[in-house]
Prior knowledge:
By secondary structure, the protein is an all-alpha fold. It has one domain (about 15-105). The protein is built from five helices and no strands. The chain has helices spanning about 10-35, 40-45, 50-65, 70-80, 85-105. Helix 1 (about 10-35) packs across helix 2 and helix 1 packs parallel to helix 3 (about 50-65).
Amino acid sequence: MSEKNTGGGLSPKQLEELELSSREADAKVALLRLGVSRSQILELVDRYSLERIERQLAWLPLRHARKPSSLIVSAIKENYEEPAAALEQTATSNSSSDLETLEQR
C-alpha cells in the first residue's frame, strides 16, 4: 500500500492555509519594506482581502509613486483601479500575440 505524500501528512485544507499564510507574510514584508508602519499593516491585512493587497502591490511600480508607503495604503483602502500603464502593457501584449498568430498563418 502506498500513500500519497501531501506535504508531511498535512490535509489539502492545511496545505491551502499554509500557502495563504505564506502569501500573507510575503505581503506584510513587502509593505514593511515600503515603509508602511506595523500598525497600518495589521489594519490592512485585517480589513482587506489578500488578493486586493497583492494586486495593489503588483501595480505600485506602474504608479511611479513619490511616497510609496502613503500611496500603497491609499490604493489598498480606496481600491484604486488598474493603472493606465498596466492596461497599455496588456494591450501591447495582446497586440503582439495577435501579430505573432497572424505571422504563423
